């Protein structure tokens, strides 16, 4: 009699099995377990757990919005070693600072596409008065009152506070009064001081970044949060970063979405470092979803990981693909080869082909519509 070959599914290691049991029961992982998750390279096991959480929170829904990017200036006196976007001073090749009139004209060009959000982040320009940003916000809001302005990272707010002699709270209140609706998560990078000293030593540190978001949440301003991965950080430092975000969310409840941001090396001082692989990208999504049990949305920014990987990420914890993203420059200047925009039809196709249901949202996750 011919023997039959029995194929058995490999069992997870004991530590991961214990973590899986807690995830299935909806029990929070402690700090040591969070570190274990970020050390693990068991992509399929972690992916299954992340997908379990994703479907527990959102079912088969994947969110997107209609948005575009406007960078008022890329002139920046910071020296972040991973950045290909910034220019140290006016007049340098590719340096650009919009006049308020140019910003308004750019916004008007986008309105026929029906956007609900403009994403507005900028360099740390040493020569602009604070009133320039207020005037730009008021002008954009007057041009398109229905447009939600998400802009001005914690790094920018920290810079304005120091440069113009204001508190963080005063900066945020003045920006909101001029038209700001919410704050993006950029500038977090990795919180570990060792890493920040190597890649972004001359801008807001972790404590300052967290404090600005704490104040914004207290003022009723929703924000996002990010993590830049793939430079010189360790798995333990990634875990520490996510745990600090989790702790602030426990305190304030003001974070809407977490966006892992993959390092792109082209045209940056760190161009000799290899970029994260597709395996790494999916792993970080899954790890983050498992540990961040209190931030509702996990976003795959398709501009930097590519449309196809973002699509696959919907099975590794991701429930948001960002939006149409017209005129993105920060990752494009770092070598991203993704399109300049995706149409709503393109986004819905990516979502449906992954077995999910596309849902159009606004910036604060109100449902705008369910495409046919």
Order of helices and strands: HHHEEHEHEHHEHHEHEHEHHEHEE
Q: What is the CATH class name?
A: Alpha Beta
Low-confidence stretches: 328-338
- Count of distinct strands: 11
Which architecture would the CATH scheme give at its second level? Alpha-Beta Barrel
Largest sheet: 4 strands, mixed
Number of helical runs? 14
Averaged pLDDT? 90
- Percent in strands: 5-15%
Outline? globular
Q: How many structural domains? A: 1
CATH superfamily annotation: Aldolase class I
C-alpha-based Rg, rounded? 21 Å
CATH fold label: TIM Barrel
Distance between the ends: 56 Å
Organism: Vulgatibacter incomptus
Domain Radical SAM core: 62-293
Keywords: 4Fe-4S, Iron, Iron-sulfur, Menaquinone biosynthesis, Metal-binding, S-adenosyl-L-methionine, Transferase
Family: Belongs to the radical SAM superfamily. MqnE family.
Question: What is the element layout, followed by pairings?
Answer:
Layout: H1 14-25, H2 31-39, H3 43-58, E1 61-65, E2 67-69, H4 100-110, E3 117-120, H5 130-143, E4 148-151, H6 154-164, H7 168-178, E5 180-182, H8 193-199, H9 206-218, E6 223-229, H10 235-252, E7 255-262, H11 278-291, E8 297-298, H12 302-305, H13 307-312, E9 320-323, H14 344-353, E10 357-361, E11 367-369
Polypeptide structure, described:
Its cofactor is [4Fe-4S] cluster. Keywords: 4Fe-4S, Iron, Iron-sulfur, Menaquinone biosynthesis, Metal-binding, S-adenosyl-L-methionine, Transferase. GO terms for molecular function: 4 iron, 4 sulfur cluster binding; 7,8-didemethyl-8-hydroxy-5-deazariboflavin synthase activity; aminodeoxyfutalosine synthase activity; iron ion binding. Radical SAM enzyme that catalyzes the addition of the adenosyl radical to the double bond of 3-[(1-carboxyvinyl)oxy]benzoate, leading to aminodeoxyfutalosine (AFL), a key intermediate in the formation of menaquinone (MK, vitamin K2) from chorismate. It catalyses: 3-[(1-carboxyvinyl)-oxy]benzoate + S-adenosyl-L-methionine + H2O = 6-amino-6-deoxyfutalosine + hydrogencarbonate + L-methionine + H(+). By secondary structure, the protein is an alpha/beta fold. It has a single domain, classed as TIM Barrel (Alpha-Beta Barrel), CATH 3.20.20. Helices cover 42% and strands 13% of the residues. The chain is built from 14 helices and eleven strands. It has helices spanning 14-25, 31-39, 43-58, 100-110, 130-143, 154-164, 168-178, 193-199, 206-218, 235-252, 278-291, 302-305, 307-312, 344-353; strands at 61-65, 67-69, 117-120, 148-151, 180-182, 223-229, 255-262, 297-298, 320-323, 357-361, 367-369. Helix 5 (130-143) links the parallel strand 3 (117-120) and strand 4. The longest helix has 18 residues, at 235-252. The chain is globular. Residues 328-338 have low confidence and may be disordered.
């Amino acid at each position: 009699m011919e023997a039959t070959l029995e194929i058995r599914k490999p069992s997870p290691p004991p530590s991961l099995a214990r973590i899986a049991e807690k995830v299935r029961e909806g029990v929070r992982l402690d700090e040591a377990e969070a570190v274990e998750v970020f050390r693990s390279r068991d992509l399929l096991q972690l992916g299954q757990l992340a997908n379990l959480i994703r479907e527990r929170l959102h079912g088969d829904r994947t969110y997107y919005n209609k948005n575009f990017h406007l960078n008022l200036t890329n002139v920046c006196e910071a020296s972040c070693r991973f950045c290909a976007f910034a220019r140290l001073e006016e007049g340098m090749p590719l340096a650009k600072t919009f006049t308020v009139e140019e910003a308004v004209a750019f916004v008007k060009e986008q309105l026929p596409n029906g956007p609900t959000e403009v994403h507005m982040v900028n360099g740390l320009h040493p020569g602009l008065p604070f009133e320039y940003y207020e005037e730009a916000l008021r002008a954009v809001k007057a041009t398109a009152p229905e447009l939600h302005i998400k802009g001005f990272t914690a790094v920018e707010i920290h810079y304005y506070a120091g440069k113009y002699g204001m508190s963080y709270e005063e900066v945020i209140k003045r920006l909101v009064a001029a038209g700001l609706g919410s704050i993006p998560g950029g500038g977090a990078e990795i919180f570990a001081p060792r890493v920040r000293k190597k890649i972004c030593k001359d801008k807001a540190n972790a404590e300052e970044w967290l404090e600005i978001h704490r104040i914004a949440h207290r003022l009723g301003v929703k924000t996002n949060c990010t993590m830049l991965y793939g430079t010189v950080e360790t798995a333990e430092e990634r875990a520490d970063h996510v745990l600090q975000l989790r702790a602030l969310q426990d305190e304030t409840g003001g974070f809407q979405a977490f966006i892992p941001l993959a390092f792109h090396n082209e045209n940056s001082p760190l161009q000799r470092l290899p970029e994260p692989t597709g395996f790494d990208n999916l792993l970080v999504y899954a790890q983050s979803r498992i540990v961040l049990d209190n931030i509702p949305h996990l976003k795959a920014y398709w501009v930097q990981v590519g449309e196809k990987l973002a699509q696959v990420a919907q099975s590794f914890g991701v429930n948001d693909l960002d939006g149409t993203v017209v005129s993105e420059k920060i990752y494009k200047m770092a070598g991203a080869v993704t399109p300049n925009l995706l149409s709503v039809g393109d986004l819905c196709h990516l979502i449906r082909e992954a077995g999910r249901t596309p849902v159009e949202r606004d910036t604060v996750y109100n449902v705008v519509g369910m495409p046919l």
